[in-house]
Design a protein that fits this description.
- By secondary structure, the protein is α/β, with parallel strands linked by helices.
- It has helices at about 10-15, 20-40, 50-55, 85-90, 100-105, 150-155, 175-180, 215-225, 270-285, 300-315, 335-345, 345-360, 365-385, 410-415, 425-430, 460-470, and strands at about 45, 70, 110-115, 165-170, 185, 205-210, 255-260, 285-290, 390-395, 430-440, 445-455.
- It has an 11-stranded mixed beta sheet.
- Helix 2 (about 20-40) packs antiparallel against helix 3 and helix 10 packs across helix 12.
- The longest helix is centred in the C-terminal third of the chain and has 22 residues, at about 365-385.
- It starts with 7 loop residues before the first helix and ends with a helix.
């Protein structure tokens, strides 16, 4: 049996008792990658020699000592490629520094191992927007793994990674975790430093773990969080031990069901699976009540004004002058910019840059961008009022199971609506987690369904408590 099927806790036990070595574990992961990655397409690159070198000096007394963790390819690790799934960075960019999140994991003893595929610059919900290849869902190889952290979810669900880091701007950790049948967690905005994460939308992006269990997610989150002066949005908040709440019951916990999340467009089998999950929470002693988040319907539109606007500014740095793809056929500076970016960026990135530039342009800023900021405040206020009545909000993670590869590539609006239940937590800066809640038989495949838990800002402890109780109960 491969070691990649075991939890981080089980592997730590084997490492500390010297039943296995860190090098043994790295080699086992590498063997699994070599065997299954040609089918799954989750990894873009992996450096076995570098990982083995770190394994030789791994401090097994540390909480994550000797554990190799796979990394989404928009998080910098010095000396490794960081493509963001884009042609514009795939040719000649090597990370010159290491992200704070990776430094934190290393300080806890972990070994970053492998670069994972993603939608280009994290723009997408299927990983079909990657310029570097197709990633498949281990539950059904003809279907998407979700996105934009599709490589992260596919690698964990496919047992070719022990755990992985992703980034979540509008659901990019939780949605692929739900579609692949694993756990995906987005911390409170500002809990995890964004230093070293290549920016998509700076007011929304957050790094978090994708794992096989809630306990593994809590363990990794312990060591991802913390204040970082290099990130101006980093919070100066103490970080509790999130594993300490695991195993606590949820009797009397107030759980809210937003009526706006159970709507037309929600696949009936997904809703049935989610309703069973809610019944399970009630059987565990939680108090269930319907709540309202009245501005939910504005969430997708708000997101697709604000996120592209920020992307338009953030991606202006990719001009082919200092690094990245540089056109060989330009005759002057303006043509250099035009051709380098046109050749380097894919269709979805171009679409969002154009959207963002438009809503920020003279004459449209007040009509679109300013209105979206006001709508964002209303969405945040909805959650603030809801958490006066309940401790946790529960909903479907995705309105549908994983669709077939290529099914929505010609319908970007429908693809955007796939994030309808995950976007609001990003707009409000709240922590959220997706936990598997069964599978549904759909078009000849058994497809995973995710249950989403949301808590108020900085209350990851309650989030993990509720999610773990559901998982093991």
């Amino acid at each position: 049996m491969s070691l990649t099927t075991l939890s981080l806790t089980e592997l730590r036990q084997k490492l500390t008792t010297k039943e296995i070595s860190a090098a043994d574990l790295v080699r086992d992961v590498a063997s699994s990658i070599e065997a299954r990655n040609p089918v799954l397409g989750a990894y873009l690159t992996w450096d076995l020699d570098a990982a083995l070198k770190e394994a030789e000096s791994a401090d097994l007394t540390q909480p994550l000592g000797g554990l190799p963790i796979a990394i989404k390819d928009n998080i910098n690790v010095e000396g490794q490629p960081c493509t963001c799934g884009s042609k514009i960075l795939a040719e000649n960019y090597t990370a010159p520094y290491t992200a704070t999140a990776i430094q934190n994991l290393r300080q806890a003893g972990a070994i970053p191992f492998g670069r994972l595929n993603m939608d280009e610059f994290a723009m997408g919900s299927s990983t079909e927007n990657s310029a570097l290849g197709v990633t498949r869902n281990p539950a059904a190889l003809d279907r998407i793994p979700g996105g934009s952290s599709g490589g992260s979810a596919s690698s964990v669900a496919g047992s070719i990674a022990l755990a992985a880091l992703g980034s979540d701007t509008g659901g990019s950790i939780r949605q692929p975790a739900a579609l692949c049948g694993c756990v995906g967690m987005k911390p409170t905005y500002g809990r995890v430093s964004r230093f070293g994460l290549i920016a998509f939308a700076s007011s929304l992006d957050q790094i978090g773990p994708i794992t096989r269990s809630v306990a593994d997610a809590a363990l990794l989150t312990n060591h991802l969080c913390g204040f970082d002066p290099r990130d101006s949005t980093s919070l100066k908040e103490s970080v509790p031990d999130f594993t300490a709440v695991l195993g606590r019951d949820i009797k009397g916990l107030r759980i809210g069901l937003p009526k706006e999340y159970f709507i037309d467009g929600l696949h009936p089998d997904v809703e049935a699976s989610v309703r069973k999950g809610i019944a399970k929470l009630e059987a565990l002693g939680a108090h269930i009540e319907e709540i309202s988040l009245p501005h939910t319907e504005a969430g997708v539109a708000t997101y697709y004004v604000l996120a592209p606007a920020e992307a338009s500014a953030n991606l202006a740095r990719f001009d082919g002058v200092r690094y990245g793809h540089r056109s060989s056929s330009a005759s002057d500076l303006m043509e250099h910019y035009l051709k380098s970016r046109s050749e380097g960026f894919g269709p979805e990135v171009k679409r969002r840059i154009l959207l963002g530039t438009y809503v920020l342009s003279s004459g449209y800023y007040d009509a679109y961008y300013l209105q979206a900021q006001k709508a964002r405040t209303l969405i945040r206020d909805d959650f603030t009022k809801a958490f006066e009545k309940v401790d946790v909000i529960v909903s479907p993670t995705s309105p549908t199971p994983a669709h077939k590869l290529g099914e929505l590539t010609g319908d970007p609006l429908q693809a955007y609506l796939e994030d309808v239940f995950t976007i609001p937590a990003n707009l409000a800066g709240l922590p959220a987690i997706s936990v598997p809640c069964g599978t549904i038989a759909h078009e000849g495949a058994n497809l995973p369904v995710g249950l989403q838990f949301i808590t108020k800002a900085l209350d990851e402890a309650t989030l993990f408590q509720a999610a773990h109780a559901f998982e093991v109960g």
